[in-house]
Amino acid sequence: MEATVKKYQQKFKKVKDDMDRWDDLQTRLISQFRNASSIIGRLQLLEDPKNYGSLKNIDNIKDSIFGKQMESLQMIVLSMNKTLEELNSIILSLAKTYRDAKQQLKGGSIQFSMKQLNQRIGIKPSIADCLEGLRLLLEMYQSEYLLKSSVISALASLALKPSVSDLHAFERLLVDQPNIPKEEVQSIYDVIFAEEIC
User: Fold this and answer.
1) Rounded CA gap, 157 and 78, in Å?
2) Is 4 within 8 Å of 127 (Cβ atoms)?
3) I need a surface site. Which of 63, 79, 100, 117 has the fewest CB within 10 A?
4) What is the DSSP letter of 126?
């Protein structure tokens, strides 16, 4: 049983690597979102000919600048979608880790009873703690991915009818990551690696 717990702890170390990668992609996505928000904010200003001052006499200046901004926005949205794909690959990795952990119990040569699954040796986690921790992490990150996907999808509609308050609200959602409570993630790791903390 102790060997099984050690295998699960290794899985948690791999999950931690995925979570670190998520954090890097999160930073990139926020930067991309802020760039897109800036362009969306400018689009409204570019619609008003008064904002061109002496440049308004240049032929097609409004269409040219507006077109360039739309082009830039399109490139940023494509980049954001690639970042979302990379975030999704992390979700797939977390799902595989959880699936493998469950399969390890079913396909192993030792069949554990419910009592054994919940049994702790000293301060080491139980097998049930490990499985539940992996399940919770997968659930949190899946929910956060779905939220991010929805926010990025909604960004396209904001380009047509810009609302500064909506942009700020969406940015807050991306930054805060409400589906991944840091304290809860830390408490899962505290249980799994309690022996290393002591």
Assistant:
1) 15
2) yes
3) 63
4) P
Whole-number Å distance between alpha carbons of 81 and 87 = 10
What the block records as the tokens of 30 is: 């926020």
Q: Show Cβ contacts of residue 143 under 8 Å, excluding neighbours closer than 6 positions.
A: 179
Give the torsion sign (CA, 34, 40, 46, 50).
negative
Cβ neighbours of 120 (radius 10 Å): 15
To which residue do tokens 């949205």 refer? Answer: 77
Q: The tokens 């399940």 sit on which residue?
A: 135
pLDDT, tens digit only, all 198 positions of the chain:
788 899 999 999 999 999 999 999 999 999 999 999 999 988 888 888 788 888 878 888 888 998 999 999 999 999 999 999 999 999 999 999 999 999 988 876 678 888 889 998 889 999 999 999 999 999 999 999 999 999 999 987 887 787 888 999 999 999 999 999 999 999 999 999 998 876
How many residues are present in the chain? 198
